[in-house]
Amino acid sequence: MQTSIHDSHFILRRLHSLFGLIPIGGFLVLHIWENGQSHLGAEYFNYYVAQPIMHTTYLLIIEIVVIALPLLFHAGYGLVIIGSGSAEPFRYRYRRNWLYWLQRVSGVAIVAFLALHIGLTRVAAWLDPAIYQDLFGYMQQSLTQPVTLVVYLLGLWLSVFHLSNGLATAAIAWGLTTNAAAQRRFGYVCLLIGVILGSLGTHALIGFLP
After folding, report:
1. At what angle do helices 135-143 and 146-173 cross, to 10 degrees?
2. Which residue from 29, 68, 132, 196 lies 20 to 30 Å from 159 (Cα-Cα)?
3. pLDDT reading at 2 higher than 50
4. C-alpha distances in angstroms, 170 versus 97, 104, 144?
5. DSSP readout, 1-26?
């Protein structure tokens, strides 16, 4: 019985890791790239980004199957991991323990941010489909509010950190980095990935500002 529980936990942890990278991580990268088109102007953004989204066949089904369900599983099982974990960053002050703690804290904060983001975008668009006619203008109006801009920047950088640090820990969990030296080297690669994605995402948000 104990072995069965251990095996189930092992499989669930691997699925949790896999869903965090694909499709959730992939969607984050795609979303940053889409928002980066903001620097090409309102007309370009609305025509090449907003309109294709609005006219995508079976968009709701794709969002539920490819994004929502993996995200719900990743977030839900993440809360289980938090509940069973025992990170004590102030007692054990080594880097990996701090990253373990920050990964969990960022995950909770990201869930709150996503609830806000989905409410301001997808839910708002369901209530008023005209938003997608000028999505650029809608985002510009939202992000010119200082509090909203700060929340979006914080949500962006927390998401990027969660992904890049999750990539480093996934490499350990999947046996791709099997010693301390390999883990350290790949950790620097993941740090670089995080800095690049965060910088691109920040640049994309700035593109919406007047």
Report:
1. 100
2. 132
3. no
4. 15, 14, 37
5. -HHHHHHHHHHHHHHHHHHHHTTHHH
- Cβ 38 vs Cβ 207: under 8 Å: yes
Residues 113, 199: Cα–Cα separation, whole Å: 19
CB 201 within 8 A of CB 35: yes
- Indicate the residue type of 100: Y
Give this prediction's pTM.
0.90
CA distance 106 to 169: 15
* Predicted local confidence at residue 73, as pLDDT: 94
In terms of CATH architecture, what is 2-206? Up-down Bundle (1.20)
Task: Look at residue 102 and give its three-state secondary structure.
Answer: helix
Domain boundaries, the chain: 2-206
> Using an 8 Å Cβ cutoff, are 108 and 82 in contact?
yes
Chain segment 156-174, per-residue pLDDT in tens: 999 999 999 999 999 988 8
Residues listed for the chain: 210
Minimum mean pLDDT range among 14-18, 94-98, 110-114, 118-122: 94-98
Rounded Cα gap, residues 120 and 76, in angstroms:
22
User: Residue 77 in 3-state DSSP?
Assistant: helix
